[in-house]
Amino acid sequence: FKGGDTCEYLLSSGRFLGEKVWQPHSCMMHKYKNSEAKNCLIDKHVVFIGDSRIRQLFYSFIKLINPQVKEEGIKHGNIPFEDKSASIKVDFLWYPEVNGSMRQRIKSWTEGSVAKPHIIVVGAATWSIKIHNGSNEALAQYKINITSIAPLLEKLAISSDVYWVLQDPVYEDMLSESRKMITNEKIDAYNEAAVRILNSSSRNSRAKVKVFSVSKLIAQETIMKSADGLHLPESSRDTNAMILMNVYCNKIMKPIDGSCCQPQPPLTLIQKIAFCFFTLSIIGYLIISLIHRNNYRKNKSCTDLESGEEKKPAISTPNVSTLEMLLHCFCKLGLIMTYFYLCDRANLFMKENKFYTHSSFFIPIAYILVLGVFYTENTKETKVLNREQTDEWKGWMQLVILIYHISGASTFLPVYMHIRVLVAAYLFQTGYGHFSYFWIKGDFGVYRVCQVLFRLNFLVVVLCIVMDRPYQFYYFVPLVTVWFMIIYATLAVWPQIVQKKANGNCLWHFGLLLKLICLLTCIYFLSYSQGAFEKIFSFWPLSKCFELNGNVYEWWFRWKLDRYVVFHGMLFAFIYLALQKRQIISEGKGDPLFSNRVSNVLLFISIVSFLTYSIWASSCKNKTECNELHPSVSVVQILAFILIRNIPGYVRSVYSSFFAWFGKISLELFICQYHIWLAADTKGILVLIPGYPMFNVLVSTFIFVCVAHEISQITNDLAQIVVPKDNSTLLKRLLCIAGFFSGLHFFSAMQDQSRH
Fold first, then answer.
1. Contacts of 13-18 spanning 24+ positions with Cβ under 8 A
2. Which of 110, 145, 243, 442 is 20 to 30 A (C-alpha) from 408?
């Protein structure tokens, strides 16, 4: 690859995704709202100098600041614009030819007494072609004039942003008789002259006039839609204005989804410490490996010449092997985290915007469904929601969610609503799985809690450090973690009611139901009391975990969106286990769950309910209104799916090993996609192989899945070391973890202070 100057790419190259979405080469373009544009341009003076084409660009630019502006006023004259609320001045100066008048105006800004504009956009040529009937003498004079102006523009470029807009091609068939002399051949000659002359006299590398040539590429695709063959259609000039905004504002506003023109963020103190730690781990592992290798060579089995028997080497001590395993895990993790950083922080690889089409979402869905069905095997057990079935469920849901993210399908509301059900189904399984464990095992020990919390949060904590992101950024893990603690607290507080105790006295079942009712009441209260919710999570240290952009609103929104589904999962587990205990349901291999008549009725109701929800979700018109209903109705499709999947005995007795394999690493897949499959924190797509979209997806997906699988193994290995079963050792480890987070908080406070 060439150098990493994405500004050059933004100004000079790109392609259309579909008809209206412009994709710059190698980087992502942010779509600026008027509030963001105002914040960027506050106290700034912007000047557009040129002909009617530059006037078009001027209007598109000021509409980004104030969409209510009308294209009125003098056509062949100066047009001022001012936004007093943000102290922004944008002027259009009518200079349709590159001549002495334009030179005099530009020269006035180079003199000390006159305030220089912060942004200057210049361009003109078509009037020179028209007035002089496309003569060669006019082109020669144009070269002379632009040669005299170039040093002045370069002088201004030292302190201001100066852009020379190359002339767009025309659609010659549509030009009026008075414009027939404006040919694409002539325009190319004028553009070539401008590019050759500008910056040719520059002695200072900083003094560079930026050539805005991307407009030509956009015009080549869209000039056929022009009203007169000369002026661009509105959508094209709006794209040019947005590019101009990205070139200037990205380095100021630093939008996540605007990677063009953004410098690489400097390493934070915590990132430097993490880098040192992983480097030492790699060195430590290599040293230990060499020592073991040398010991092995020294103690290698050799034949005793007198007895003819082999001598066996001494066995390594367990302490050394534990240390080696620990260093081995951190060594692999360090290499993986380096890849994460290079993909999404180092501006090494290209990034592109997402672009949704129905085919980009539904064709991969069909493909993975065929693969999933192909890998069908018999289950080891035939219980409802057995381990293999839940892994399969997590697997296909995770694959659908991944395709949803990379295809940008969130813009299509029916797909969005169905994906919301899949996220709810994950949380339903959280409620079902943890409730079942505590209810059946009665194990409320610290070891179990620490194991679950470590497995859920280890990767996210490492990414928060390496990628410099807040904990709440990876919203799903905080969501699952909090719900696990709520389930634990609900069942662990006095009186502890478990299955063994409830079997002795049926009244305990009512006690548990009372606990669940209290939980539902608390959920209902917090969902309709944003103030109370925010007060709870605004207390230190919870605020450090759940704040995003200085407040906990995002966390409240995420929690509220699926507030009842974990409770539904707990309630379903309680009812199912009660029915199972009383042998009301039949879970034999090939047997229907209930009697044939009841099974058929329930199956019919489930299919109707499933389709009814899909029809409702597909007819959704407003995302806000549908999100309000979602928490209450998502359980309908989830329960319908469970019954369809489990009532017929032959369906319950098989599972897809393909989906189940992905289900075992579903959490790692969900988190890793943020940085090494998608890009710019999920806003774009990572491009490892430019120019070959399908091949790029295959390669990046293969690496992404392998990394997720490796991280899953690392997490499991470290969980055995960091969270031991022995209570006294576990207590020491917890004190070490507390010390680690205290140090992390200290360094984080130092970082915040240095930033301010």
1. 13/214, 13/217, 14/214, 14/217, 14/218, 15/217, 16/218, 16/221, 17/353, 17/355, 18/355, 18/357
2. 243
Whole-prediction pTM: 0.91
Contact predicate 88/82, CB 8 Å: yes
Three-state secondary structure along 298-354?
A: HCCCCECCCCCCECCCCCCCHHHHHHHHHHHHHHHHHHHHHHHHHHHCCCCCEEEEC
Q: Tens of pLDDT along 244-287?
A: 999 999 999 999 888 899 888 899 999 999 999 999 999 999 99
Handedness of CA 598, 603, 606, 608 (dihedral sign): negative
What is the bridge-based pairing of β-strands 45-50 and 119-123?
parallel
pLDDT in tens, 165-196: 999 999 999 999 999 999 999 999 999 999 99
CB-CB contact of 613 with 640 (8 Å)? yes
Q: Report yes or no: 433 and 576 within 8 Å, Cβ to Cβ.
A: no
Q: Which of 453, 602, 464, 440 is nearest to 545 (CA)?
A: 464
Sign of CA dihedral 239, 240, 246, 249: negative
Q: Are 242 and 29 in contact (CB under 8 A)?
A: yes
The full 3-state SS of 138-199, as one line of letters, equals: HHHHHHHHHHHHHHHHHHHCCCCEEEEECCCCCCHHHCCHHHCCCCHHHHHHHHHHHHHHCC
Strand pairing class (119-123; 161-165)? parallel
DSSP state of 47: E
106 close to 152: Cβ distance less than 8 angstroms? yes
What is the radius of gyration, based on Cα positions, of the chain?
33
Please state, in angstroms and rounded to a whole number, the distance separating the CA atoms of residues 99 and 107: 12
Place of tokens 């040539």: 213
**Are the beta carbons of 589 and 454 closer than 8 angstroms?**
no
d(CA 391, CA 397): 10
Query: Going by C-beta distance under 8 Å and a sequence separation of 6 or more, which residues neighbour residue 250?
Result: 30, 258, 259, 260, 261, 262
Question: Is the Cα dihedral 364, 370, 375, 377 positive or negative?
Answer: positive
SS3 content of the chain, % helix, strand, coil (to 5): 65, 10, 30
H, E, C per residue of 664-704: HCHHHHHHHHHHHCEECCCCEEEECCCCCHHHHHHHHHHHH
What are the tokens at 754? 């240095």
Beta strands 45-50 and 350-353, pairing class: unpaired
Q: Give every strand in the sheet of 678-679, ordered side by side.
A: 350-353, 684-687, 678-679
CB 10 within 8 A of CB 260: yes
**CA contacts within 13 A on the Cβ side of 495:** 13
Answer yes or no: are the C-beta atoms of 336 and 462 closer than 8 Å. no
Closest CA to 523 of 538, 511, 541, 536: 536
Helix/strand number for the chain, H first, E second: 29, 13
Q: In this structure, are residues 219 and 226 in contact, taking their beta carbons and an 8 Å threshold?
A: no
Say which residues have a Cβ less than 8 Å from residue 55's Cβ, sequence separation at least 6.
Answer: 48, 75, 79, 92, 94
SS3 378: strand
In this structure, what token pair is assigned to residue 171? 């659609």
pLDDT tens, residue by residue, 93-120 = 999 999 999 999 999 999 877 789 999 9
Which H or E run includes 21? strand 21-24
Active site residues: 52, 228, 231
Please check whether residue 484 is in contact with residue 430, taking contact to mean a CB–CB distance below 8 angstroms: yes
- Given a contact cutoff of 8 angstroms between Cβ atoms, the answer to whether 34 and 245 are in contact is no
**pLDDT for residue 201:** 59
User: Strand, helix or coil at 120?
Assistant: strand
